[in-house]
């Protein structure tokens, strides 16, 4: 039977703490999930810790899995985290660098200096890819002892442009791609560095990806470390040089430095040892070196096939890589007594996985030991119920310390049932480790992602669609998607719609799964009124999933949205006087903590251009790191560009959306944007945009442009259309104003050429609304549709015989002219010859001209 604590484990922990001295025992705060400490969460303890300390402030964390995304702010130095046991104290989260998980993907972010941790596991459980950090360090003098770092791609980033120092003593670090990376200075002593077998079947990986900055004497130094063999299907190089590639300029090219001294390594390391990033790598500035690398038999590794630009160090060279040489004036051995001394390794199982078999193939149960310990018994237990009776399925004992990979197989459970597994690892004299319980299920399950906002339908046409994601597994039949009365759903982008009378059926594949599918939802009611209920997703044997939806159908058609104000951003930040409706005042945006590109040779991008629009960053040459004064990969409410929209005279204006093109040049590392608006200039109110469309179509609610759910931008300038306040928008009366702010972030550590860009910023809505006794005035010129593709219809006043319509590019060149038929009130424009982009349509009649922007897609 599983037990959370054992008397032996508690005794050993107490002895360890005694060995570390009175300082480590005098805990200032205690965290415990069961409520027996001062706080139940680690972040709450961090928040309660004092700022500006000059001596250690200790936080003891009792055993438990703490599912938190943690940040140690820069103003809280000298925090020390002590876990009850390295196997039992786990700080975990599962973000990744994807649109579904926007933001810094790190489970733990340490921005403070003089932080230390002992006996703790730091984990990002997302998987092998994409980027998902367990640890992100920007502070100086950060030390770890007897800790585990579990991840996949980019497990750990030592991120500093100034060579800030980190120290790792007898730690375990694993991953698959660049899993120790960054620009900081890191010393790793007696650590286990485990390059795992890739779960995606990939045959290659990389341990380090240092982007050591020019002029720094040290990057990553590994002393007396071990690289165990994995399961044999993935081979690795010791490192590759991040940011020394085709995209780097001589001024920002990294001079990567990685040295392995007295390393024990297996056959998982490729004979070449190292590799370039791409064809643009300049190897002459790289320092990759080894000293007496040995195999597990104690023999020197054959380095004759190492890349010719790497080095084999001589005995005399090693004096340059002592602890004092690498870390300089900082001595991490003073963190607590015996911090740099040896500690016997603990039993800790890592990477316990249960992979369901397919067809006749059985399920695979695999795991590895974190530290090299011979004589450990591994027992695999199974039950048909999570809290049922577990019986031993498999047992093995490690014969030699170097053998750390274990596993077995088991038939898949019968349809409609599940198996539950855990591993118990034990050895006399050591604390036992019992893993989490994993499930292999043959139970049909339906998954959904996303929520909807209230729908609004005006007149006959259906409402705008909103999207959800749906998937399923272990199915024995189709997933039936039934909308409530008045609503419709589509699984093919709106080509075919299904209602409550004839629901949508999503058929599973041969493996009983429905791949992730975008489900579009709209209100298409026949009668005026309110509508609501649940969108139900059901399949035989699966729990029914209900997604609430609500909406309103009104008799009146929805108001037409036209461009009211336009900031092209191609030559300056001024708005276009030709496009701005008379109901609005002149307005120029302002930057806060962002500055325009310097346009220098280092920046490479001008402050304004037709290609990029406006280019800006926290630093004029395009840097974003906190060391340069930027906000890095995290959105910050003090870094933004602000736009103001204000009615003039006695006019009222309805605003429904903002449209713009945006991206961050040269990077997709935590490149996020969000838009927030206010009626009070952010003095008393603030609201997020409510979603809209991006380059991939309708934005999901998890990445819809809100500050907490930002958009993760792509690597090219893309159009975004974001609703300010749902389908109805908002109305500004005379004398009121609306302010909206566009926030950006970028996690790239490159110090130049990374710029946020904005172009063709538009505020859309309807001007000249009825206000009091004032009558509404119709818009004199409207385009349908806008944006358009092949053609659009221009609605204009009754044309005279000389009336015509001209189309101008965003730089003012006339690209098309079409005469208007006398007396006509509409003219069709053929757009097939125009390239995608923004244009201005000008109608010229008898002594009158009207102008409106057009977007060609």
UniProtKB/TrEMBL annotation:
The keyword Oxidoreductase does not apply. Keywords: Aspartyl esterase, Hydrolase, Signal. It comes from the Bacteria. Belongs to the pectinesterase family. Residues 783-850 form the Secretion system C-terminal sorting domain. This is T9SS type A sorting domain-containing protein. Residues 1-24 form the signal peptide.
């Amino acid at each position: 039977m599983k037990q959370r604590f054992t008397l032996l484990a508690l005794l050993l922990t107490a002895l360890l703490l005694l060995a570390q001295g009175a300082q480590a025992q005098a805990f200032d705060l205690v965290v415990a999930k069961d409520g027996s400490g001062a706080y139940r969460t680690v972040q709450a303890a961090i928040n309660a810790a004092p700022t500006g300390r000059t001596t250690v402030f200790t936080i003891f964390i009792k055993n438990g899995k703490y599912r938190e995304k943690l940040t140690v702010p820069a103003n809280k130095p000298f925090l020390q985290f002590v876990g009850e046991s390295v196997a039992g104290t786990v700080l975990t989260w599962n973000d990744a660098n994807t649109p579904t998980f926007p933001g810094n993907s790190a489970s733990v972010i340490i921005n403070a200096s003089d932080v230390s941790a002992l006996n703790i596991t730091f984990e990002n459980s997302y998987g092998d890819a994409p980027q998902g950090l367990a640890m992100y360090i920007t502070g100086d003098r950060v030390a770890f002892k007897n800790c585990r770092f579990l991840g996949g791609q980019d497990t750990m980033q030592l991120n500093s442009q100034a060579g800030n120092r980190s120290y790792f003593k007898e730690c375990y670090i694993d991953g698959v791609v660049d899993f120790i990376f960054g620009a900081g200075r890191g010393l790793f002593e007696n650590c286990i560095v485990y390059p795992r077998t890739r779960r995606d079947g990939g045959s290659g990986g990389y341990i380090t990806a240092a982007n050591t900055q020019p002029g720094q004497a040290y990057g990553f130094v590994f002393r007396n470390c071990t690289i165990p063999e994995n399961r044999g299907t993935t081979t690795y190089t010791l490192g590759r040089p991040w940011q020394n590639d085709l995209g780097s300029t001589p001024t920002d090219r990294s001079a990567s430095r990685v040295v392995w001294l007295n390393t024990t390594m297996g056959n998982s390391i490729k004979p070449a040892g190292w590799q370039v990033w791409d064809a643009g790598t300049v190897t002459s500035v790289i320092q990759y070196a080894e000293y007496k690398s040995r195999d597990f038999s104690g023999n020197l590794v054959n380095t004759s096939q190492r890349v010719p630009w790497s080095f084999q160090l001589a005995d005399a060279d090693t004096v340059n890589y002592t602890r004092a040489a690498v870390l300089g004036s900082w001595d991490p051995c003073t963190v607590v007594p015996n911090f740099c001394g040896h500690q016997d390794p603990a039993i800790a199982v890592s990477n316990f996985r249960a992979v369901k078999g397919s067809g006749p193939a059985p399920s695979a149960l695999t795991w590895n030991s974190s530290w090299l310990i011979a004589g450990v018994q591994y027992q695999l237990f199974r039950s048909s119920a999570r809290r049922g009776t577990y019986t031993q399925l498999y047992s093995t004992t490690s014969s030699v310390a170097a053998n750390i990979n274990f596993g077995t197989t088991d038939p898949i459970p019968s349809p409609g049932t599940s198996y539950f597994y855990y591993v118990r690892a034990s050895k006399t004299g050591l604390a036992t480790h019992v893993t989490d319980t994993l499930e292999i299920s043959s139970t049909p399950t339906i998954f959904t992602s996303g929520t909807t906002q209230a729908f609004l339908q005006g007149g006959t046409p259906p409402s705008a669609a909103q999207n959800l994601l749906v998937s399923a597994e272990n199915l024995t039949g189709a997933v039936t998607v039934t909308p409530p009365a008045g609503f419709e759903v589509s699984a093919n982008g709106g080509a075919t719609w299904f209602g409550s009378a004839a629901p949508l059926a999503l058929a599973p594949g041969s493996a009983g799964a429905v791949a992730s599918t975008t489900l579009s939802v709209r209100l298409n009611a026949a009668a005026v009124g309110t509508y609501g209920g649940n969108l139900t997703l059901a399949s035989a044997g699966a729990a029914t999933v209900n997604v609430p939806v609500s909406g309103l159908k009104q008799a009146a058609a929805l108001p037409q949205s036209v461009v009211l104000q336009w900031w092209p951003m191609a030559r300056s930040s001024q708005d276009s006087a030709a496009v701005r409706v008379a109901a609005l005042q002149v307005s120029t945006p302002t930057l806060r903590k962002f500055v325009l590109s310097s346009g220098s040779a280092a920046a490479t991008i001008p402050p304004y251009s037709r290609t990029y629009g406006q280019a800006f960053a926290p630093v004029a040459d395009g840097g974003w790191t906190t060391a340069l004064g930027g906000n890095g990969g995290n959105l910050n409410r003090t870094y933004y560009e602000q736009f103001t929209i204000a009615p003039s005279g006695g006019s009222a204006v309805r605003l429904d959306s903002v449209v713009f093109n945006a991206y961050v040049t040269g990077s997709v590392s935590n490149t996020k944007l969000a838009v927030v608006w206010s009626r009070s200039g952010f003095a008393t109110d603030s609201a997020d945009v409510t979603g809209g469309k991006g380059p991939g179509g309708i934005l999901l609610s998890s990445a819809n442009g809100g500050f907490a759910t930002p958009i993760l931008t792509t690597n090219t300038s893309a159009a975004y259309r974001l609703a300010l306040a749902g389908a109805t928008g908002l109305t500004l009366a005379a004398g009121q104003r609306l302010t909206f702010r566009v926030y950006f972030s970028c996690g790239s550590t490159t110090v130049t050429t990374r710029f946020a860009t904005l172009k063709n910023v538009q505020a859309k809505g309807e001007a000249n609304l009825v206000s009091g006794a004032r009558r509404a005035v119709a818009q004199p010129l409207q385009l349908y549709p806008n944006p358009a593709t092949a053609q659009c219809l221009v609605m204009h006043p009754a044309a005279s015989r000389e009336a015509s319509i001209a189309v101008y590019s965003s730089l003012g060149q006339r690209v098309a002219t079409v005469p208007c038929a006398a007396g006509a009130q509409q003219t069709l424009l053929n757009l097939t010859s125009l390239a995608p982009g923004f244009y201005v349509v000008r109608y010229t009649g008898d002594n009158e001209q009207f102008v409106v922007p057009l977007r060609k897609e």
